[in-house]
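G., before I forget:
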Amino acid sequence: MERLLEIKNLNIEFHDHDIPERVVNNFNLELAKGEIVGIVGESGSGKSMTAMAIAGLLRRHDMEKKGEIIFEGKELLHASRSEVRQYQGDDIGMIFQEPMTSLNPVKRIGWQVEESLRIHRPDMSKEERYRRAIESLRDVELEEPEKVYRQYPHELSGGMRQRVMIAAAMICEPKLLIADEPTTALDVTIQLQIVKLLQRLNQEKQTSILFISHDLSLVKKLCHRIIVMHDGNIVESGSTKEVFYQPKEEYTKQLIQAIPKLEKLIL
Amino acid sequence: MKKKLLNQPTFLLGTIITSIMLLMTFIGFFYTPYDPTQMDNSNKLAGCSLEHIMGCDNFGRDIFSRVLQGMGNTFLIAVATVTIGVVCGILLGAFTGYFGGWIDEVIMRIIDVIFAFPSILLALVFVSIFGTGKYNVVFALGIAFIPSFARIVRSEFIKYKDMDYVKSARLAGVSDLRIMFVHILPNTMTVLLSSIMIGFNNAVLSEAGMSYLGIGVQPPDASLGSMLSEAQSYLFSAPNYAIFPGVMIILLVLGFSLMADGLKSR
Ligand SMILES: Nc1ncnc2c1ncn2[C@@H]1O[C@H](COP(=O)(O)OP(=O)(O)O)[C@@H](O)[C@H]1O
Ligand SMILES: [Mg+2]
């Protein structure tokens, strides 16, 4: 399979205190086109930092970043902001944990979904943008997309907002979608729907997905491969089956045990 | 949102008062019953009558006509002042709040220094350097108004710049400028709007104060403040001369205060 993303020896260190704090340590990853890789680990293990580094969001002066992030042959970690912007929203999309705060409260849904098009397809006509936005909203299984298009975020439920976020992230048909705990703030039935939606989008559009979660049961359902992180280090990685049924590390076993019994029955 | 606002009694009352005042100001630009500078010796300090509903001043000029013209001047000065303050305040506040760093430090210290002077004092210094007159007053007050707006906008930008939706915008490849003025700025509008109204009030009062001190609008032009200043020698012989411009200032300020109050307490 063709390689889309390669991360070599990613190190992230904060220098905002007297003692530098390393939050990601020697992170390595290869991601093929169309593949879904999960990153799991407890809170504070450095998952979000890794994701933000890939998305080009770590641009603070007080942190040191080492290593390489190569996306389709282009090094992005040390590229300039304007170079990274070419990829953001176009080839790389990202969704966050909090659907409640991820949408701008004073802008209509349609406007927000279209924003990436305005940036990356400046020649596109208004009508074409509208058509694409509606299509994208329909793609994430929102009923009445024309109505949602005109609504404001506070008029939608959490699950609907997360769908809108996905629609906005997918509108330029990115090759990579980074989902940072996209289901954590939602209730269980909605979580499953979102996971199924991601699965479908992956199959239909061949979008690679980096799925970050502390919930192993969801990762197991969705991902082809799993990376287990703890304290900024990769503790274990392998295919979902391997990690799940023959975990080598004590930490992974504990994570698996932490899945509620009931969910084990359902999944 | 708009409907709810108008259902609120304070905001509604403020809107009604302000609308009437604005209407009068607007009419004053095109029509006054008499020429506001036309003197008439036979009518010196005349009381209220059917011909001159607010009476006449010490030169026999129709007070009502002068009030209308004065409101226009006061209003234009206040609007221009607030516009300078708001536009510069938004630019400075947006950049310092969004980017932070040493530029933020430097600009905010300068602004603190400006803020430390009372606006009237600052304007006095300015006028003593550049001379009296409408335009200098506007310029001086405008500069004095920048700090308060810059601070408000800056704190709003600091609040919003790390919001998830701003991160999403950055992630969609949106440029910093577009994020600042298209994504963040509309979110600050509620706060900005009420401070614009309060700023407008301060501008009206400052203009009145400066014209009262004789450094604002120059005679024979009228402004509400300069009329008050001229009227003070006739306070007992012709109280109507001072009362009408004074009441207009109060109503103008009251209307906007009530609206700002309604906006805030929503
Ligand atoms: N400004 C900062 N300075 C120092 N450490 C930070 C800062 N921001 C986050 N961290 C640390 O980075 C680590 C990784 O955080 P994060 O990637 O958000 O974890 P996760 O997403 O896995 O829950 C945490 O231990 C957190 O304390
Ligand atoms: Mg996280």
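Chain A has eleven helices and ten strands. Chain A has a mean pLDDT of 89.

More on Monday.
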